[in-house]
Write a structure and sequence with these properties.
This protein has eleven helices and 14 strands. By secondary structure, the protein is α/β, with parallel strands linked by helices. It has two domains: 178 residues, P-loop containing nucleotide triphosphate hydrolases (Rossmann fold), CATH 3.40.50.300; 62 residues, 2-Layer Sandwich (Alpha-Beta Plaits). The strands form three sheets. Strands 6-7-8-3-9-10 form a six-stranded mixed β-sheet, sandwiched between helices. It has a four-stranded antiparallel β-sheet with strand order 2-1-4-5, covered by helices on one side. Helix 3 crosses helix 4, helix 3 runs parallel beside helix 5 and helix 5 packs parallel to helix 6.
C-alpha cells in the first residue's frame, strides 16, 4: 500500500471539535464537547451505552450532521468540505459491513471499485491487504464461513482499501475472543506506527487503558475528563499499600506505629493510604528496616480506569475485558 499523501501534512491534530452539539428532539446527546486528537496516536472515547460515542463518530466521519460546532478532520472543515474529509478517513462500525455471500477477496475488490482504483491497482492492493491482515489462505472462501475475528479483520481491510489517514473504529472488538482482540490490536498498532490516527470508541476499560494514548470520558453528553490513562488515574484517590505479616507481634507493632491504617486482625494485614510513588514506598521500607519489622508481603494498589469511570459517570456499569 502507498502512504496517504495526507499523512505527510504537518498537522498537530488529526481531528478537532469545538462546541460539538447534537440533539434528537428534546434529548441532547452531545452538549458542546471539545476534542483535539493528536496526529499519529490512538485516541479513545470512553463511555457507557447511550453516552453519545457512536453519534460522535458518525458526525466526525460525515455520516450525520452536527447541530452546531467547529469540526475539522485533517484540517478540513466538515461543514464546508465533507468530500475532502471523506477522502482522508476510513470507518469501521460496531457491526460488520462484510458481504457474507461473496469471498473475502471479492469484498476487497468491490471496495477497490468503489474507490475507483484502476483494475491492476485494485488487485495489487487487495493482495497486499489480504497478506497484511492474515487472510490470504481464506481469500477464496465465502466470508460467511469466517470466524468473528476474521470478519473483523476483513472489515478493517475493506476500510484500508482507501488508504485512510484517520481511522474511526466504533467498538471494533465487541464480541471478539481475547486472541482475536489481541491480533486485531497488533494490526491497529502497526497502522499507527505507519502514521495513521485511530479514533476509537470502546466499552472495555482494560482495552482503553492498554491501547489508547489519550482518553476522553463521555458522560451525559459532556466530556467529564480527558488525558492519558495515567493522568486520568491520578484524578481519583484511593491508592494504598497493603502489608501482610506472618508474625502477630510484628503486625501489632506496625499497626500501632503506622497510623492511620486499616487493620485486619484475621489476616494480619494493614492497608495504608499511599499514592504508590517511589518516595512513599522508600519511606515505608526505611521505617520497617529501622524498626526491625519484617512484612511477609507488600502490595501496591493504584486507582485504575474502573475507579476513574465510576467516579466520573456516577457508577454506570461497563464490562471489563476478558483476561488474556
Amino acid at each position: 500500500m502507498t502512504t496517504s499523501t495526507a499523512a505527510s501534512t504537518p498537522l498537530p491534530y488529526a481531528v478537532q471539535a469545538s462546541g460539538l452539539r447534537k440533539a434528537y428532539g428534546a434529548k441532547t446527546v452531545l452538549d458542546g464537547i471539545d476534542l483535539a486528537v493528536p496526529a499519529g496516536t490512538v485516541f479513545c472515547l470512553l463511555g457507557p451505552n447511550g453516552a453519545g460515542k457512536t453519534t460522535a463518530v458518525k458526525i466526525l466521519s460525515t455520516l450525520i450532521r452536527a447541530d452546531s460546532g467547529d469540526l475539522r478532520v485533517g484540517g478540513h472543515d466538515l461543514a464546508r468540505d465533507p468530500g475532502a474529509v471523506r477522502a482522508l478517513i476510513g470507518v469501521t462500525g460496531q457491526f460488520s459491513a462484510v458481504d457474507g455471500l461473496i469471498t473475502g477477496e471479492e469484498n476487497l475488490l468491490l471496495m477497490a471499485d468503489l474507490h475507483h482504483l484502476p483494475r491492476r491497482e485494485g488487485r495489487r492492493t487487495t493482495g497486499e491487504l489480504l497478506e497484511r491482515l492474515g487472510l490470504s489462505e481464506a481469500a477464496k472462501k465465502p466470508a460467511s464461513t469466517y470466524s468473528g475475528g476474521m470478519r473483523r479483520r476483513l472489515d478493517i481491510a475493506m476500510t484500508l482499501v482507501g488508504d485512510p489517514w484517520v481511522l474511526f473504529l466504533d467498538e471494533p472488538t465487541t464480541g471478539l475472543d481475547p486472541r482475536s482482540r489481541h491480533t486485531l490490536w497488533g494490526i491497529i498498532r502497526e497502522l499507527v506506527r505507519g502514521g495513521v490516527t485511530v479514533f476509537l470508541t470502546t466499552q472495555y476499560l482494560e482495552e482503553a487503558d492498554q491501547q489508547a494514548d489519550r482518553i476522553a470520558v463521555l458522560s451525559d453528553g459532556v466530556i467529564a475528563a480527558e488525558g492519558s490513562p495515567d493522568e486520568l488515574k491520578r484524578l481519583v484517590p484511593g491508592g494504598h499499600v497493603r502489608l501482610r505479616f506472618g508474625d502477630p507481634s510484628a503486625y501489632r507493632h506496625a499497626a500501632s506505629a503506622l497510623r492511620p491504617a486499616a487493620t485486619d486482625d484475621e489476616t494480619l494485614s494493614l492497608q495504608i493510604l499511599s499514592d504508590g510513588s517511589q518516595r512513599e514506598l522508600r519511606s515505608l521500607l526505611d521505617w520497617l528496616d529501622a524498626a526491625g519489622v519484617e512484612a511477609d508481603e507488600l502490595t501496591v494498589h493504584t486507582p485504575d480506569l474502573d475507579d476513574v469511570f465510576f467516579a466520573l459517570t456516577g457508577g454506570a456499569a461497563l464490562p471489563k475485558e476478558a483476561v488474556r
